[in-house]
Amino acid sequence: MNINNNNLCWLLLPYFIFLLLSLPPSSSSFCNHLDSSALLLFKNSLNTYHFPSKTESWKNGTDCCEWDGVTCDNISGHVIGLDLSWSNLQGQLHPNSTIFSLRHLQQLNLAQNYFFGSSMCSEFGDLVNLMHLNLSYSGITGHIPSTISHLSKLLSLDLRGYDLIVSDPNYPRMRVDPYTWNKLIQNATNLRELYLDQVDMSSIGESSLSLLTNLSSSLISLSLSATELHGNFPTDILCLPNLPQLLLYENEKLRGELPKSNWTAPLSYLALAYTAFSGNIPDSIGHLKSLKSLALQSCNFEGLIPSSLFNLTQLSDLDLSFNKLVGPIPSKINKLSKLQFLYLTNNKLNATIPNSIFELPNLSGLSLASTDLSGHLDFHLFSKIKYLGILDLSDNSLLSINFDSTVDYILPNLQSLNLSSCNINSFPKFLAPLQNLLQLDLSHNNIRGSIPQWFQEKLLHSWNYTTTLIDLSFNKLQGDLPIPPNGIRYFLVSNNELTGNIPSAMCNASNLQILNLAHNNLTGQIPQCLGTFPYLSALDLQMNNLYGNIPWNFSKGNAFETIKLNGNQLDGPLPRSLAHCTNLEVLDLADNNIEDTFPHWLESLQELQVLSLRSNKFHGVITCFGAKHPFPRLRIFDVSNNNFSGSLPASYIKNFQGMVSVNDNQTGLKYMGNQNFYKDSLVVVMKGQYMELERILTIFTTIDLSNNMFEGELPKVIGELHSLKGLNLSHNAITGTIPRSFGNLRNLEWLDLSWNQLKGEIPLALINLNFLAVLNLSQNQFEGIIPKGRQFNTFGNDSYGGNSMLCGFPLSKSCNKDEDWPPHSTFHHEESGFGWKAVAVGYACGLLFGMLLGYNVFMTGKPQWLARLVEGVLN
Ligand SMILES: *[C@@H]1O[C@H](CO)[C@@H](O)[C@H](O)[C@H]1NC(C)=O
Ligand SMILES: *[C@@H]1O[C@H](CO)[C@@H](O)[C@H](O)[C@H]1NC(C)=O
Ligand SMILES: *[C@@H]1O[C@H](CO)[C@@H](O)[C@H](O)[C@H]1NC(C)=O
Ligand SMILES: *[C@@H]1O[C@H](CO)[C@@H](O)[C@H](O)[C@H]1NC(C)=O
Ligand SMILES: *[C@@H]1O[C@H](CO)[C@@H](O)[C@H](O)[C@H]1NC(C)=O
Ligand SMILES: *[C@@H]1O[C@H](CO)[C@@H](O)[C@H](O)[C@H]1NC(C)=O
Ligand SMILES: *[C@@H]1O[C@H](CO)[C@@H](O)[C@H](O)[C@H]1NC(C)=O
Ligand SMILES: *[C@@H]1O[C@H](CO)[C@@H](O)[C@H](O)[C@H]1NC(C)=O
Ligand SMILES: *[C@@H]1O[C@H](CO)[C@@H](O)[C@H](O)[C@H]1NC(C)=O
Ligand SMILES: *[C@@H]1O[C@H](CO)[C@@H](O)[C@H](O)[C@H]1NC(C)=O
Predict the structure, then answer these.
(1) Does the pLDDT value for residue 663 go beyond 90?
(2) Pocket residues: Cβ below 6 A from ligand 6
(3) Which domains, ranges and CATH numbers included, belong to the chain?
(4) N or C: which end of the chain has fewer CB within 10 A?
(5) Burial class (CB in 10 A: 0-12, 13-18, 19+), 661
(6) Which one of 28, 33, 37, 58 would you pick to mutate in the ligand 1 pocket, going by the greatest count of ligand atoms within 8 A of its CB?
(7) How confident is the model over 545-593, as pLDDT tens digits?
(8) Residue 521 CB less than 6 A away from ligand 9
């Protein structure tokens, strides 16, 4: 049969008539007019942060069904879908928002906007037809309302928040309570996708999580990373029969184990990284035939890597780093032909590197850092892996790597190479043909002699803009300092034997964030330009032979956090522009020839924690300049070995807020410096010896005013510095008595008041200093009885020498009234709880060790092993 167009029209006529009749009366708009004005009012209640925005096309008088992001029902004209993701919308989403009148909505997507300050209001529960709700990265925070459980038709729910929030516990995030969670999971029985990353789920327990097994037939994606889940994670969820994606990473307190049998789930993406999952990686993992990505790094897994893992031929990302896995790398590893990333960092894997690893054609990232792998490794074998971009073999002291002397191979795509601590003794020649090197770490090796010409050429003329990190520190390099590439951000060549000047060509590297030339034999002046680099946060030139002035032109708004110029021959006054370094945390100018008065103009630096002016030619009186809270965060104040005079700087001491509050929460123990490539270190005098602290604990608080010409009495306010660990006022001309308030320095570990003109009795209150390990009161004019008990039982004669009027233990001179010692000063075990053990440890193991152990004892009660050890040592 042959039907022409006319015939077709006649056939369809009844249908056209039906369509016309069902249209709304207004011919200009198909859209439901109530929905249309609701959308316009919604638009008008918001700002557009910047353009483009989907709402630009929303105009009164046009058909809203044609607007960007709007979907209507074909028949009724009701708005059923609203996708305003990435629309640059800004403002508050109030409960009276007209968006909540769009009761026919099946899809609502407000992701990636700027609704900061808005909370998730209960009106969302009115949109009972919703099947898809996405409020991720929208800035909406606060309690998830219980009404969300009215959304029984939900297929997907995405409430993910920003990653940043983890680092700032005060930043508002979304929060779900068990009541709401239980109702939601019980009512939304068709839920397929649930994304709650960064939502606070800390109140959701194991039984509530188990409800997810009710969704076993529907759930295909579950993502609960960084939600503060803790306790046991129900193993059943790892076995859900239709779930390909399960992401639980960054829940440090979430425990769990992998199913040991019957693990036949269709998982493709499994991420448990940075959780407390533990136990073995069971053989049953070999059943997860669909697995593409397995992220188990930084958990507590132990035992062997099961060989069944290498049956998973779809695997492309495998990260088992930072666990306690032992044994060899299975050599059937080449069965994983799709593998792109293989990270086995920091496991106790031993034996040799299997040759099969070089038969992974698609490998682009490989880390075997910090293992116990041993044997010889022919580096040219890596050239078989054509796409290799990232290679980390660092910190493998048992491995010996052979680099060919004749280079006939290249790794054309290599961008990041870490060969730190690999026993290397020359610059690997295979680097020469590399074009796109981004990061190179050859630190902690035995590379001797001057830097080869070809390497310097590459730095200047080929890696000049791409390279961001060069680390050559801790080698034995000699000759001139290499000139870094222009675009570099991290340049570290410390702890070598480099000589000559810092070349002015360094001034081209103005993107530097960290410059570490410490511990070399560099001479000449510091280039002035370094003070003007806008991103430079750590400048470490300590322990060289630099002379002349400190750069005088530190720019306003600079990024300096650490400036370490100690151990040089710098002179002249301090540049006043140092006060522009408002982010400064560490300023170490010790051991130079700087001649100036005390830089009180630094007292307004809010972040300054460490100020060391030790061993210079500073002079004059130290007094407060006038800031209301001078040096508010200072914790280490060292002005020893100068020519300061006048009375002790009580006006400052009384304001050292950083030393007043005791922060001995062990989980809060932190080191200074948050940069990956730079850790703050510091030389301090403890127990009369110079010691380098490789990292500075944020609880480390000391004052050292020794070897000056301070006079007058000890200010009582020192007693308020409750977190002070060390106080050295020796070699001054201080008079008067020790205030009783010194007994409040409960954290004090060393106290040196020697070589002054102090007199009177040693206050009994000092017996309260439970952590005191070193006491030096020698060469004063103290008199009377030396207190007895606790720490005082551990000090020797040296602590008191040159005080002819002192008597009692440990001095041979006994006191008449020795027997009448008042009872409160004898040692009460029950009273202090941890006292004598810390005493013994501090005494037996040396100061710093004692201090750290002392902390452990304090924090964890009385560990049995330690108690036994100490009792053994003492008996
Ligand atoms: C749209 O335009 C009509 C007619 O001009 C007006 O009555 C109505 O208030 C407008 N609606 C909005 C939301 O601006
Ligand atoms: C509405 O129309 C579109 C095409 O214009 C079609 O793809 C869709 O399936 C229709 N929806 C309904 C519910 O009829
Ligand atoms: C909606 O509520 C907010 C906050 O309560 C208020 O400031 C605003 O005026 C209200 N808007 C309307 C249209 O009522
Ligand atoms: C479950 O959903 C239905 C439909 O929206 C609703 O009427 C009911 O109140 C919900 N139950 C709970 C406990 O929220
Ligand atoms: C594993 O599955 C088999 C067969 O379905 C069953 O008999 C066995 O009890 C299961 N084992 C465990 C530990 O669940
Ligand atoms: C892994 O594959 C081998 C054969 O290649 C097979 O014998 C073994 O049972 C498999 N293991 C698992 C756990 O699937
Ligand atoms: C590797 O480590 C395992 C477990 O610690 C040990 O039993 C084995 O002897 C080690 N092998 C080698 C070659 O060191
Ligand atoms: C920087 O490197 C490019 C090639 O990567 C080269 O063309 C350019 O001349 C180099 N610049 C300098 C200053 O050497
Ligand atoms: C450092 O260089 C000076 C000469 O500039 C030299 O006298 C001194 O011995 C060198 N020091 C070291 C440790 O190499
Ligand atoms: C210790 O610090 C942790 C985390 O900062 C905090 O949760 C805990 O309450 C603190 N404990 C004490 C005793 O202050």
Answers:
(1) no
(2) 283, 286, 308, 311
(3) 597-814 (3.80.10.10), 841-874 (no CATH)
(4) N
(5) exposed
(6) 37
(7) 999 999 999 999 999 999 999 999 999 899 999 999 999 999 999 999 9
(8) yes
Q: Which band of pLDDT confidence, cut at 50, 70 and 90, is reported for residue 829?
A: very low
The SS3 assignment for 131 reads: coil
Report strand pairing: 586-588 vs 562-564: parallel
Say how many Å lie between the CA of residue 413 and the centre of ligand 8. 19
Asked if the model's pLDDT at residue 815 lies above 90, the reply is: no
Split at pLDDT 50, 70, 90, the class of 723 is confident
Residues 295, 272 contacting (CB under 8 angstroms): yes
**62-88 pLDDT tens trace:** 999 999 999 999 899 999 999 999 999
The β-bridge relationship of strands 89-90 and 221-223 is unpaired
Q: Is the CB of 483 under 6 A from ligand 8?
A: no
Each residue of 454-464: pLDDT tens digit?
999 888 888 87
Residue 194 predicted with pLDDT over 60: yes
Amino acid letter for position 172: P
Report which of residues 244 and 623 the model is more confident about.
244
Of all protein residues, the one whose alpha carbon is nearest to atom 12 of ligand 3 is 96
Which ligand sits nearest to residue 146's alpha carbon? 4
Mutate to test the pocket of ligand 9, among 545, 568, 569 (most ligand atoms within 8 A of CB): 545
Residue nearest to ligand 6 atom 10, measured at CA: 308
Residue in the structure block whose two tokens are 């001995």? 664
Question: Which ligand does the CA of 35 lie closest to?
Answer: 1
Distances (CA, A) of 34 to 79, 195, 548: 10, 32, 77
Give the residue, by CA position, lying nearest to ligand 3 atom 11: 96
Whether the Cβ atoms of residue 31 and residue 65 lie closer than 8 Å to each other: yes
Q: How far apart (Å, rounded) are the C-alpha atoms in residues 236 and 706?
A: 65
Q: Is 45 in the pocket of ligand 9 (CB under 6 A)?
A: no
Give the residue whose CA is nearest to atom 12 of ligand 10. Answer: 665
CA atoms of 325 and 469, how far apart (whole Å): 30
For residue 428 the two structure tokens come to 């690997």
262 lines ligand 5 (CB under 6 A): yes
Residue 845: band (very low, low, confident or very high) from pLDDT cuts 50, 70, 90: very low
Q: What's the 500 CA to ligand 9 centre distance in angstroms?
A: 10
d(CA 778, CA 756): 9
Helix, strand or coil, per DSSP, at residue 659? helix
Residue nearest to atom 13 of ligand 6 (CA): 286
Name the token pair of 218: 């529907």
For the stretch 754-785, what's the b/e string if a residue is b when 16 or more beta carbons lie within 10 angstroms of its beta carbon?
bbbebeeebbbbbbbbbbbbbbbbbbbebeeb
SS3 132: strand
The arithmetic mean of pLDDT across residues 788-800, rounded, is 89
DSSP string, 437-488: --EEE--SS--EEEPPHHHHHHHHHTSTTT--EEE--SSEEEEEPPPPPTT-
- Number of residues written out for the chain: 875
Answer yes or no: is pLDDT of 333 > 70.
yes
Residue 229 near residue 254 (C-beta atoms within 8 A): yes
Query: pLDDT at residue 833 above 50?
Result: no
User: pLDDT per residue over 259-289, tens digit each?
Assistant: 999 899 999 999 999 999 999 999 999 999 9
What contacts 18, CB < 8 A, 6 or more positions away? Answer: none
What sign does the CA torsion over 849, 852, 858, 860 have? Answer: negative
Quote the pLDDT of residue 270: 97
Alpha-carbon Rg for the chain, nearest whole angstrom, is 35
- pLDDT tier, 697 (very low <50, low <70, confident <90, very high otherwise): low
